[in-house]
Amino acid sequence: MNDILQSLNKALARQGWLYGDKSHRLGHPFEWVDGDRHPELYTTIDSLSILLYLSMFYEEYATPDEVLTSDYEQMKGYYEEQLDNFCKHFFPFSKLSPTPLASDLKTYIGCHALGRTQDYCFIRKNCKDLTNSIKHLDIGSGLGSHALYSLKGLNSEFYALEASPKSYAVQRHFLRFISPAPGAYLDLVELENFEVTYDAMSKELNNNSKYKIKHCPSWFVPLIQDKSIDLITATWVLNEVSFSGILWLMSHASRVLSQGGYFYIRDSSKLKPGRHSINYDKLLNQIGFVEVARLNVRNRIDYYGVPRVYQKKTDAAYSFEELGESFLGKFAVTAHGGEYVQNLENMPKLKT
């Protein structure tokens, strides 16, 4: 993981996050606030780290009829098979463990497969004009398992965007394991390790279709070509980043998503305290996105999260600085997070 941390440190210096206004007032955007509140994520290595991410799905909620697609059972079975193969590779000793690891793995595989299949079906049902060969950007990829339905069901080029070095390291294991062919997985941090120039990295990222899985740290998202992405997904992530993080993600979403492209969110409809107070659903409305579907459910009572999807109806894009001034104001201090936020304006309207 050291090379990922070194890449982040280089980016902080190169992009000017270590000094002046951006550092002292806003803070950098490459922070997983919830991760910092779970120190166990940073005290484990290798297979135990993978197990932590796999086990983030541990609840089952029935799939509503309005979400079901004709290939629902096929996709769910495919997920279970692929995740089972992944676990057999990384946890071949599970039946020998004195803890009930083998039965736990079965639960995690079933819950994970169900959740991701539901994501796929909601997208299929509600992104009406999404073609069958797309570029799909997943924000905060967790284990990386959105890639399974994306590659199989959407015939995509899959971009995994991640800001947490720990998460990025875990995703390396999963994405390499499921890579559909030798040489089909691109890791931008590895390119940087071999001193590939940023121009060359951008060309590989955007123009070389042999890579079906493209692994991109959030600090390299400026390398993604404007208006090149057809679908963005964000599940259980937008509530868990900092003020700078949400503005960074939303500004680049407005830039890289093509007009008519879709932004799928599955998360609580309530903001978590101590992270950021920017209502990203309203923000999307203000920068030219229109909600086209929302599942009428109660989070963790009827369903796990509230799925909704937006479509970009404009050709406009907004910079981090523009969103920062409009949604934070010129004098807000958010760098220290939590109870230390100061001078925060009350969500002024974006100047268009």
What average pLDDT do the residues reach? 94
CATH fold descriptor of the domain at 2-37 and 131-340:
Rossmann fold
Low-confidence blocks of residues: none
* Percentage of residues in DSSP E strands: 5-15%
Strand order across the largest sheet: 3-4-2-1-5-6-8-7
Describe this structure in words.
The protein has a domain at 2-37 and 131-340: Rossmann fold (3-Layer(aba) Sandwich). Helix 4 (46-54) packs across helix 8 and helix 6 packs across helix 7. It starts with a helix and ends in a 25-residue tail after the last helix. The chain is α/β, with parallel strands linked by helices and 352 residues long. It contains 13 helices and 8 strands.
Provide keyphrases for this structure.
single chain; 352 residues; alpha/beta; Rossmann fold; 13 helices
